[in-house]
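Please, structure for the following, as tokens.
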Amino acid sequence: MPADSCIFTPLHNPVGGWRMLIKDLLSHKGNTVFTIQEKASTLDALKTLNEKHVGSLIVINADGKVAGILSERDILTHIQQSVRGVPVTTIMTPKDKLIISHGDDSIEYAMSIMTEKRIRHLPVFEGDNLIGLVSIGDVMKAVSKNLEFESKLLNEYISGSYTMVP
């Protein structure tokens, strides 16, 4: 598939505009799901999350059915007491290994680097000065808003209701 082609099959949405289906995303991404047995230890779950570079595991019961989902956030919520007294420098990513962005970088760059490196937060620098922090949620919200705006303009243009502002 060419790099500039769309991975989705756009379907007309009767409410207006176009919609994309999750199954199209999965057909491109793949449907590999990492799982863990419900009797497994939290340490086993942490090891699997780290080895597979994923943020969640589907929990499977003794019958082989989905029992739930375990996320990094679930684990963090429950282990906060066990790390009492451990300096953050012990577990942080040091500055010399930070993956960063700059204010003039594009949203597409941020999406690309966050996806490629499988990170969810990107410190933003101007020179040596930290000027902000963007999350994958911030990036996706900006992209979504931009796509909504572009879609609105295109629909207005196609329908003939678009008016140019001088």
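The helical segments are 22-29, 42-52, 72-79, 88-91, 107-117, 136-159. The longest strand covers residues 129-135.
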